[in-house]
Design a protein that fits this description.
By secondary structure, the protein is α+β, with helices and mostly antiparallel strands. The chain has two domains: 89 residues; 233 residues, BirA Bifunctional Protein, domain 2. Helices cover 40% and strands 19% of the residues. It has eleven helices and nine strands. The strands form two sheets. A seven-stranded mixed sheet has the order 1-4-5-9-8-7-6, with helices on both faces. A two-stranded antiparallel sheet has the order 2-3. Strand 6 and strand 7 form a beta hairpin. Helix 2 packs antiparallel against helix 4 and helix 5 crosses helix 10. The longest helix has 39 residues. The structure holds adenosine-5'-[phenylalaninyl-phosphate]. Adenosine-5'-[phenylalaninyl-phosphate] (FA5) binds next to strand 5, strand 7, strand 8, strand 9 and helix 10.
């Protein structure tokens, strides 16, 4: 019996040493020191011992229990400390590690160019007006001196929704809407950015949906030289003093006289490429003096008031400014293209 007890002590202490965690240690405690454990089992045989041996064996059994108990306690402390250290190690934050990059978005190049143009004109005393993309034929054409059947309607192939409603083909309807709202009074000084739609075939410089920014100034004594000066300031601020501009005589039914403004191509530096269609120039806007018929239709006395208007294409302006060789890049949402503009923010 004595031997068995010593054996159990040895066995238990070895198991305690090998225990890797508190759960295993607890299992060892239950299995060796519990009521159904081997020591209790050994003690059950004490009845067979002589009266002399019984107390000795009892004392030995208690000693073995105490030794195993304190072995378990010691090991428990070690394992608890280990667990704390492990937890601390796993929760340590190394403040010297480089941070993980956070993906941040950036403004779309068109949004940026539009905001830049808006700021420029706001600085010259203009306010921003916005109008509907689904527009009445009246404002898109008729009020702009383009009655039904007028051949110049073919200049802007349109998406009609019904006989009288269409997707606006330009932002010029805002000229008529703004003047109508102002009830024949000046001054008017607005710019109007927004989307427009045309049944154009998509190519490097044409898109069926694109943006325009309309400008309109109406007051007494507004002259062609005011328009020219304004466009000159705009072009210089936008593209720098070294880029050339040219005004070509043109025709729009709602302006008289009318011009188109071209900027020298940045991609080929004027030598000719697919963006400028070999001409060295890219047309960015149409403009002119507001036609007296348009002023009168909107309720203005054309003998007292004159005005100028312009309509520019921000896509083409952004192409020239950033050296983008195809307008379709703005609408295909290729993240590699869009990311390039984050550095300009
Ligand atoms: C007009 O739309 C006139 N409403 C502009 C205007 C306003 C003239 C006020 C006089 C007074 P135009 O069709 O030329 O004009 O278009 C103006 C600009 O829009 C062009 O110079 C060009 O920059 C841009 N644009 C025209 N069509 C497209 C297209 N399919 N894709 C991209 N940009 C275009």
């Amino acid at each position: 019996m004595q031997e068995r007890l010593k054996e159990l002590q040895q066995e238990a202490l070895e198991a305690v040493q090998k225990a890797v965690d508190l759960k295993e240690l607890n299992e060892i405690r239950v299995s060796y020191l519990g009521k159904k454990g081997p020591i209790t089992e050994v003690l059950k045989g004490m009845g067979k011992l002589s009266a002399e041996e019984r107390p000795k064996m009892g004392a030995l059994a208690n000693e073995v229990r105490d030794i195993i108990s304190s072995g378990i306690e010691e090991k428990q402390k070690v394992l608890e400390e280990e667990a704390v250290q492990k937890k601390l190690a796993s929760e340590t934050i190394d403040v010297t590690l480089p941070g993980r990059p956070v993906n941040s978005g950036n403004h779309h190049p068109l949004t940026r160019i539009i905001e830049e143009i808006e700021d420029l004109f706001i600085g010259m005393g203009y306010t921003i007006a916005e109008g509907p993309e689904v527009e009445k034929d009246y404002y898109n054409f008729e009020a702009l001196n383009l009655p039904k059947g007028h051949p110049a309607r073919d200049m802007q192939d349109s998406f009609y929704i019904s006989e009288e409603i269409l997707l606006r083909t330009h932002t010029s309807p805002m000229q008529a809407r703004t003047m109508e709202k102002n009830e024949g009074k000046g001054p008017v000084r607005i710019i109007c950015p927004g989307k427009v739609y045309r049944r154009d075939n998509d190519d490097a410089t044409h898109s069926h949906q694109f943006m325009q920014i309309e400008g309109l100034v109406v007051d007494e004594n507004i002259r062609m030289s005011d328009l020219k000066g304004t466009l000159d300031v705009f072009a210089k601020k936008m593209f720098g003093d070294d880029r050339e501009i040219r005004l070509r005589p043109s025709f729009f039914p709602f302006t008289e006289p009318s011009v188109e403004m071209d900027i020298s191509c940045k991609i080929c530096k004027g030598h000719g490429c697919n963006v400028c269609k070999g001409t060295g120039w890219i047309e960015i806007l149409g403009a002119g003096m507001v036609h007296p018929n348009v002023l009168e239709m909107a309720g203005y006395d054309s003998t007292k008031y004159t005005g100028f208007a312009f309509g520019m294409g921000p896509e083409r302006i952004a192409m020239l400014k950033y050296g983008v060789d195809d307008i379709r890049h703005y609408y295909t949402n290729d993240i590699r293209f869009l990311k390039q503009f984050s550095m300009h923010e």
